[in-house]
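Notes for week 9. Today we move from apo structures to complexes. The key idea is that a small molecule is not decoration. When we ask for a structure prediction with S-adenosylmethionine present, the ligand SMILES becomes part of the input, just like the chain. The input block below holds both the sequence and the ligand string. Read it once before you look at the output, and try to guess where the molecule might sit.
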Amino acid sequence: MPILNSDGIDGLFLLSGEDSSIPMGELDSLIRIYHPNTELSSVGRRLVIAKNVNSETVDIISRRGAYVYIGGTFVTSIQNNVRVRDIEEVDFRPFIQNGDGFAIRMMGTRDEDVKVKIETIIGSAVTRQLPSLRVTLSNPDVLIWGVEQSKKIYLGCTRNWDRKKGWVQRRARSKPFFHASALYPKFARALVNLTMAREHETILDPFCGTGTILQEASLMNIEAIGIDIDKKMCMGTNRNLKHLDLKRTSIIRSDSTVLPVKSADVIATDLPYGRCSSTKGKTLRTILDSFLRDTCRILPLGRKATLVYPKGIKLILPPELVLTQKHEIFMHTNLTRVVVVLERQ
Ligand SMILES: C[S@@+](CC[C@H](N)C(=O)[O-])C[C@H]1O[C@@H](n2cnc3c(N)ncnc32)[C@H](O)[C@@H]1O
């Protein structure tokens, strides 16, 4: 059920703590899909306010976002030397209904005493306003959460928070077919989201490996086409997708430098680098150039391709492709990944 008065609310998002600009890039892409004119303002590195959205949008983004730890309705911000009076002035009634099970959680506050103090003050203010609420610590109907940032406490309110996004069940080692080149599902999901693919559209991964990008797309109701030159990879991907009971996917065994597909709404891929994954005798430059050429041919105007490649390779873009986002992710001393989002002009 949405928050009462669901239109014209401000959203509050807490991003997960990766040392990268990709969480903010992903949130921005998701907002542009569902509420294109919304202004995002960052409060510190992990906390973002989305002005004038609706609770359905906040719900969808919270579920889709790989790097969205929690999203909800922005209730208010108060000074962090919390006084009982300040909290009592906050009207929680638009967000909670009598009879709801609720919980309060301060997030990212290291000092346990401060945390307990603030949670207690908020708890008594809420129960004074809505006396028939029940405190429910596991799976509450409503979670009121707070984050301390820039000498203030930002309060958000989330209904039916689904904390677990199933990363562990979907990681490479948990699936029947494993290969060392497999991406983390969280990262693969962010790559899909950066393309701004909508439900029921088609995404293409021309170097699909074990199928992590396809798997995450399919879970978001996006049709996925995967291509790999390696028969073992194609068969393994099929096994992985079957294991996860994912049906909106098709796998083609082919050489993607001679792409057998004529159209797709968006593209996301992680190129073979020749370290964990074989380039089958071709240079990364040849693979990259053919990828860019085919992206120009396949992508509809205004649509996006997300591409991952190792730092150190120069990206020479044709005039039809414009760079809209660029992120770097340090993996280990020998590998920093570059993620770019390209838009077809
Ligand atoms: C980095 S891996 C992809 C990993 C994948 N994202 C995953 O999560 O499992 C790159 C894949 O490209 C495939 N590949 C290499 N050259 C290819 C080509 N010319 N056409 C299609 N696939 C190719 C390799 O077999 C490898 O599986």
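The chain has nine helices and 15 strands.
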